[in-house]
Amino acid sequence: MLLGHCSKCGKTEGLMNCSRCHGATGAYCSKECQAAHWKIHKPVCKPLEAGEVWGIKILDNRYQPWSRQFQHVLLEPSHPVFTQGELCPVTAECGFPLLIWSEAIHGGLPAMENNQPAVYLRIELDDGFAPFHWQRTDPGTCIVVRQDRKLLTKEAIEIVYNFHSYLLDRADPENAESGHGAFGQPLNPEWLRSFADDYREDETSRGRKGFDFFP
Ligand SMILES: [Zn+2]
Ligand SMILES: [Zn+2]
């Protein structure tokens, strides 16, 4: 599946596919964008076999901070995340649907450790809590993929996680009475997108690279 936008700047015209992965995970509008994006692109730059999907493995809380908890993972089309994974409510409402699968809750492995980023991703719109089956069992390692099976990057999951964190800071049970759920106002794609723009600006001004284009 080709990307349709420059992986660095988001431009949609004059794209050339990365020649190493044949555009599976990288396409660019210019050599400059390609060079500037290489460090970010390198871990996922390989041609994909039919049906393979890049997802993110979220390691459990023993690997905190979360910047170490997120890992790229290449998934076979038969991975149970595609059939057993649960839709993450906040991102679904924001036009970026993700599926999440837990090795303990769905995979039947003995519960080991909690996984804070994963639990955040699973919070419900009405009360800001993860459902009971996510609270009752420590989820351990989790797998997240885009429902549309496109590339999910570490940068995108970082932004999404921080968006949940920001929403939870403003979550208030009294908000629910306003009829707009836990977060005081209805979620929509523009809210996530403007959060992503601000996050990218902040991180870039701190000298971090990679927060170029939120898909
Ligand atoms: Zn570009
Ligand atoms: Zn590539």
Description:
The protein is of the alpha+beta class. It has two domains: 1-48, no CATH class; 53-203, no CATH class. Helix content is 36%, strand content 13%. The chain has helices at 31-41, 66-69, 81-84, 89-93, 116-121, 132-136, 154-170, 173-180, 189-205, and strands spanning 16-17, 27-28, 53-58, 70-75, 86-87, 98-102, 142-146. The chain has a five-stranded antiparallel β-sheet with strand order 4-3-7-6-5. It is globular, with a radius of gyration of 18 Å. The model has no long low-confidence stretch (mean pLDDT 91). The structure holds zinc ion (2 copies). Residues 18, 20-21, 25-26, 41, 45 line the site of one zinc ion.
Identify low-pLDDT runs: none
Instruction: Output the strand order for the largest sheet.
Output: 4-3-7-6-5
For the record, the count of structural domains works out to 2
Integer-rounded radius of gyration:
18 Å
Number of strands: 7
User: Which structural class do you get from the secondary structure elements?
Assistant: alpha+beta
What's the average pLDDT?
91
- DSSP helix count? 9
Helix content: 25-40%
Bound molecules: zinc ion
Main β-sheet description: 5 strands, antiparallel
Order of helices and strands: EEHEHEHEHEHHEHHH
**What is the first-to-last residue Cα distance?**
14 Å
